[in-house]
Design a protein that fits this description.
Elements: E1 2-4, E2 11-16, E3 25-26, E4 39-41, E5 51-55, E6 60-66, E7 77-85, E8 105-110, E9 116-123, E10 138-144, E11 170-171, H1 177-182, E12 190-194, E13 207-209, E14 212-219, E15 234-241, H2 249-252, E16 261-267, E17 274-279, E18 285-291, E19 294-296
Parallel strand pairs: 2-3, 11-12
Antiparallel strand pairs: 1-2, 4-5, 5-6, 6-7, 8-9, 9-10, 10-12, 13-14, 14-15, 15-16, 17-18, 18-19
Length: 323
């Protein structure tokens, strides 16, 4: 993992699992490739990244704690912390060869005692073999209780939350009416969904907005029986109320959803769902979700964005020799 000066291109900091890489931090758990983009999070809204989350091809999830008060490049990161392992480092069976190719969706919530915690939501999927049906792919939401602590930089590693494994997580049973109404066991360190369709997997990131998690999956469903025809597959769309996995009111009454899931929202690979603000026929604004070529206005139909203050996003571009 690298941190580089965006203007000059200079290497500022590096972490590696290889002792021969001359890294600022050597992390023994970094044993697998990391194709995912890192997810940078500004927790206090001061415009400076506080932590970075990233997954790897071994089914592991790391958090990089950045030190805003660092006086030297070598101290930019306090630590690289393994927060979860739910792949082959937990169990080496073929079914557990889970891989994280995409960055997580991250949001903060309060528990019943008013304590803040972060949810790190991400799905596994073998992107290099989209037709694979051997791996038991899942969607995970991990609860990170450490990241919001004001003394995180001063904490010793031994005092941090233990690495999350499957036994620490609740199963979000899509068919359980109790979970739909009340959510999962809140004493657990998160939850996961076992995808119901053979070969179903995550090939894109989701997003969290207004306490709703929206993500898509790909199912390699063979739509024709001829061996000469390609397997086109289908995209499914899920919506879960955060943080404990209740069924959202809007999807509960939406006939296009069966519980948490809208099956076959489009043929083929739909990609990452995107939240859009569009003008409706009556001239007012409304939220809709775009997944591939399909629009879904029902998920956030109870929200009125017309009084919201829109903040333009900041962008940067590479300078050319003509600038």
């Amino acid at each position: 993992m690298y941190i580089v000066d965006a203007e000059k291109g200079d290497l500022l900091w590096k972490a590696s699992g290889n002792t021969g890489d001359d890294a600022d931090l050597v992390v023994a758990d970094m044993k697998f490739s990391i194709p995912s983009s890192p997810k940078a999070i500004d927790l206090d809204g001061d415009g400076v990244t506080d932590v970075i989350y990233v997954g790897d091809l071994g089914g592991q999830v790391f958090r990089i704690d950045l030190d805003k008060k660092a006086v030297a490049n070598a101290g930019i990161a306090k630590r690289v912390r393994l927060i979860a392992k739910v792949g082959q480092t937990e169990s080496a069976t073929l079914a557990n060869q889970r891989r994280f190719y995409e960055p997580p969706a991250v949001a903060t919530f309060k528990d019943s005692a008013g304590q803040l915690f972060a949810t790190v939501a991400m799905g596994s999927g073998y992107r290099s073999r989209p037709l694979n049906a051997i791996t038991d792919e899942r969607f995970y939401t991990f609860f990170d209780k450490d990241v919001v602590k004001p003394n995180l930089m001063a904490m010793a590693d031994a005092d941090l939350q233990a690495v999350i494994t499957t036994s620490d997580l609740a199963v979000l049973d899509l068919n359980s009416t109790t979970i739909q109404d009340e959510g999962v066991d809140t004493t657990k360190k998160g939850w996961f969904i076992d995808y119901p369709e053979a070969g179903e997997k995550s090939l894109a990131s989701g997003f969290i907005f207004s306490s709703r998690l929206v993500f898509s999956t790909y199912s390699p469903v063979q739509s024709v029986t001829s061996n000469c025809s390609p397997v086109k597959g289908q995209t499914n769309l899920y919506t879960v109320c955060m943080p404990y996995g209740k069924l959202c009111a809007t999807t509960k009454t939406d006939p296009s959803f069966t519980g948490y899931k809208k099956s076959n929202t489009m043929a083929g690979l739909g990609g990452e769902p995107q939240l859009m603000l569009i003008k409706k026929d009556d001239g007012t604004l409304g939220y809709t979700v775009l997944t591939g070529t399909t629009l879904d206005a029902g998920i956030f139909s109870d929200l009125d964005p017309n009084s919201a203050k829109l903040v333009p996003s900041k962008k940067w571009r590479e300078k050319s020799s003509k600038d």
